[in-house]
Design brief:
This protein is α/β, with parallel strands linked by helices and 217 residues long. It folds into two domains: 7-115, GMP Synthetase, Chain A, domain 3 (2-Layer Sandwich); 123-213, Ribosomal protein S3, C-terminal domain (Ribosomal protein S3 C-terminal domain, 2-Layer Sandwich). 32% of the residues lie in helices and 29% in strands. It has five helices and eight strands. The chain has helices at residues 7-10, 26-50, 92-104, 125-137, 142-155; strands at 20-21, 60-67, 71-78, 110-117, 160-167, 176-183, 194-203, 206-215. The strands form two sheets. A four-stranded mixed β-sheet has the order 1-2-3-4. Strands 6-5-8-7 form a four-stranded antiparallel β-sheet, with helices on one face. Helix 2 (26-50) runs antiparallel to helix 3 and helix 4 (125-137) packs antiparallel against helix 5. The longest helix has 25 residues, at 26-50. The chain is globular. The model has no long low-confidence stretch (mean pLDDT 87). One of its GO terms (molecular function) is rRNA binding. It comes from Pinus koraiensis. Part of the 30S ribosomal subunit. Keywords: Chloroplast, Plastid, Ribonucleoprotein, Ribosomal protein, RNA-binding, rRNA-binding.
Length: 217
Amino acid sequence: MAQKINPLGFRLGVTQNDRSHWFAQQRNYSKDLREDQKIRTCIENYVRTHIKSSSNYGGIARVEIRRKIDLIQVKIYIGFPNLLLIEGRGQGIEKLRNDVLNMLDSADRKLHIAIEKVAKPYRKPNILAEYIALQLEKRVPFRKTMKKAIELAEREEVEGIQIQIAGRLDGKEIARVEWDRGGRVPLQTIRARIDYCYYPVQTIYGVLGIKIWILEE
């Protein structure tokens, strides 16, 4: 029988890299791990609440965290950076930094946040998943949404993409799984540069789960 495994963890060290870079003693490891999750959640909530791009969604591709003795370095890869989030313009970065520090409840630690724009945002599954979630919240038909997302990814010259949506699609009483694919997506090959994300979205019919696999060149 098939064994389910996260595609990113399956390829870690081969075609995928860690998104947190730090070392901790055993007694502090779980604490730092929870802090990383809180930092990512705080950043995502801030972007969704305060930053409205032309597409009406944040467009965060990933968040990388590096830790030193008294310094936390956070690098946000974003597809559609608002002027308030670009370094040197406005107070967006400073307000975000203060929000994260208040959440960590640690006044003696330094935090540095950097923003990097993603050249081709629709090659990133997290950004595509946000786009699909926005369309589903607006009650756009899920098949139309999947086909449009595949078109956006193919314009960015991805080699292959697979999208799966599960839940009460179109408000039907029985939940089901629907998927669509463009190009090739060899999930069983470790050497294939597969990027993946899972994104839940709350609709009036319940929670839908979105999974996206993208084969990069």
